Amino acid sequence: MSTPDLVLALGGAAALLAAVLPGLLARRAFSPPLVYLLGGMGLYLLPIGLPEPDPVAHRAAVEHVTEICVLVSLMGAGLALNRRIGLRSWSTTWRLLGWAMPLTVAGVTAAATGVLGWPVAAALLLGAVLAPTDPVLASDVSVGEPADAENADDEVRFALTSEAGLNDGLAFPFVYAAIALATAGGLGWTGEWAMTDVLYRIVAGVVCGLLIGRLLGRLFFHSPAEELRLAERRDGFVALGATLLAYGVTELVSGYGFIAVFVAACAIRRVEHGHGYNNVLHGFVEQLERLFTSWLLLLLGGFVAAGGLAPLTWRGALVGALLILVIRPLAGWLSQVRGPAGPRERRVISLFGIRGVGSLFYLAYALGHADFGVPPEELWAVTAFTVVLSVVLHGITATPAMTRLDALRERLTSGARG
């Protein structure tokens, strides 16, 4: 049996599974990502000669594949959101970004230092790596397709989707801080870090995203030349072109491309909020997202089955469990005190800070830039365990939680009408 042929066959089967599973598992307490994860574990337990999924040996490949997956998901998130960006309308998002994310980084850093005894640079890296929220791994807690009404998104789905859209980029300053701490030592780097990695790169990402998004939006919908009004041709792959353009241009000027992609998607959507072409673009990137996610989670399952968690100690598992069960829920809850979300909505938003592909990308990226004084295998084991724990717990509980919340919201709405 030829290994490349086997890989192609399994990749094709995974792609078909990604198309079938959402319909089969709709309204069931068992998410597609959990199926992919378990499927990958099962495949790698079979004696069929699959190549070993080693993220240490193939760090660069892991970095770039996860990078593409994150980019596609960011474009999809931005196109799906229906609310106009504002201080009040996005209040929950700003609270999660401004309070919950730094508190999560600090909590994980403290846990990794105190429980694992890691150097501060490695502990800070783990906090930064595990900070981004990734709702693509539990579709029930993310916004669906674009809708005409700006108030179509409920607070929970909107908050988690918009948070993930921005904190996938805002984790970078913390990653750069960990890299600087590992390479430079001391605190002499903090001034340059604050001005460059925090201020300049974030502003550059936002500005580039706005300019490119508005330019492309005007081109798609209002170009004087009929050949350039792509909205009339309804080609979905244009979304991929917009994603790569926004990311590439922003990275060329040393801005945060992740932020730029999400902002560009929001800007494109705002040009013609209710146009059907938004659904075409979103549909295309959503399909790509599901495809990449299925492949990556199969490999993650294979990594677990092949012994990738062997370096994991009970202390490392404890840190991952603390993040999922204590640190993120507590940080999420505190960030929403006196916010617009109701008590039940706050609980769901706080509990479903899902970890996923973004964490894998950031770890691969950081390990290519510095030695953090901890074996890479151990860093991968703790990160992978945390992602697996998130996929399992959130994959089982997301559907029941959102079903109950939607039913309660419907009863309250019906009562108000009556």
- How much is the radius of gyration in Å? 21 Å
Q: Helical segment tally?
A: 15
Query: What profile does the largest beta sheet have?
Result: none
From the coordinates shown, what is the CATH architecture?
Answer: Up-down Bundle
Order of helices and strands: HHHHHHHHHHHHHHH
| Count of DSSP strands | 0
Domain module count: 1
Sheet/helix structural class: mainly alpha
Overall mean pLDDT stands at 92
At a glance:
With 418 residues, this protein is mainly alpha-helical. The chain contains 15 helices and no strands.
Description:
The structure is a single chain. With 418 residues, the chain is mainly alpha-helical. The protein is built from 15 helices and no strands. The longest helix has 42 residues, at 376-417. The termini are far apart. The model has no long low-confidence stretch (mean pLDDT 92).
Summarize the SSE layout with pairings.
Layout: H1 3-24, H2 32-45, H3 59-80, H4 91-114, H5 120-129, H6 155-170, H7 172-183, H8 190-222, H9 238-252, H10 257-271, H11 277-305, H12 314-335, H13 343-351, H14 357-367, H15 376-417
Throw out a few tags for this protein:
single chain, Na+/H+ antiporter like fold, mainly alpha, globular, about 425 residues
